[in-house]
Amino acid sequence: MSTAEADDAGPTVADLGEEGLLAAIAPLLPQATRVLVPSGDDSAVVAAPDGRYCISTDVLVEGEHFRPDWSTGRDVGARAAAQNLADIAAMGARPTALVVSLVLPRATPVAWVQDLARGFADACVGTDAGVVGGDLSVGERVVVAVTVHGDLGGRQPVLRSGARPGDVVVHVGTLGRSAAGLALLQAGLDDRADVWGEAVDAARAGLASECLRIYRAPAPPLAAGPALADAGAGAMLDVSDGLLRDADRIARASGIVVDIADPDDDPDTGQAHDLAALEPIARLLREEAAAARSLARAWVLTGGEDHGLLATLPAAAGRLPEGARVVGAVRARCEGEPAGALIGGRVPDQLGWDHFRA
Ligand SMILES: [Mg+2]
């Protein structure tokens, strides 16, 4: 099923036309609090009190990044917003404004697009950010292209290149849950159908639903970005392509080695918590115990799109910001050693997600 093929879903975007569609979604979109001239003119005007602004963009393509039979419009809107908002948080900034361009097939139900707008509003709750403009166009499949702006509030931007030997590596947010949710959907285990049955206890069904929810609409810890910056973060990014791959990006940009603690070596690390939680979810895929553990391990170490924040902090930084847990350490390269991420002191077999390889 494509977005355009929903039956009995009411009027389509072709029925309403561009002006009508805009009128149908505008009241549902989140409002930015720092907007000086709202949408309605040729361009919006947004305050940038810091004198600089962060800007980033990200796109979701139907069939590539989401499937309409797995995600509602509301999920897609929340995910498109969340992955952009996370990029601003990862600089140590607060998001201020989103600009959204939509490509829609003519047969897309208006209700789906309204749902998408509600998803944007969900993701912006608790922030100053809102949708201040965008564009509507027609095409063969849905494309949601978002540009996000953010304000540093006087902080120095936290780059990927500022990790130093002796730093601790911390993570805020969940790991591997989006990947677990995707695996459940790929196995036909969608919690919107009654698939768990009596064989699955409530705790496992609840966690499986959480994984599906995070896959559909991740909830990045946005407030942790500025908090980590204030705590002295030297390097930071949001984990979009997997813990190891994104740790490797920090390592290469900084010219150092990031050694991620192996959850199998040290069951007390933070990752082990996620690993232990995800093993029962892997068992739902009818995996034997050993295979389930290795699947859960792959989700935690290489699964992307939870959009938690990964940062390096000086070891002397003192108390960690709320929700932060230590997942590794930064050390200098040995002679001839390349910069990169290690897992438990070893070179990983696989880093994580690559958009062009898949
Ligand atoms: Mg990012």
Automatic annotation (TrEMBL):
Its EC number is 2.7.4.16. ATP binds at G134, D135, R160, S240. PANTHER family: THIAMINE-MONOPHOSPHATE KINASE (PTHR30270:SF0). The lineage of its organism: Bacteria, Bacillati, Actinomycetota, Actinomycetes, Actinomycetales. Substrate binds at H65, E305, W353. Mg(2+) 3 binds at D42, D87, D238. Keywords: ATP-binding, Kinase, Magnesium, Metal-binding, Nucleotide-binding, Thiamine biosynthesis, Transferase. Mg(2+) 4 binds at D42, S56, D87. Reaction mechanism of ThiL seems to utilize a direct, inline transfer of the gamma-phosphate of ATP to TMP rather than a phosphorylated enzyme intermediate. It is an enzyme of class 2 (transferase). This is Thiamine-monophosphate kinase.
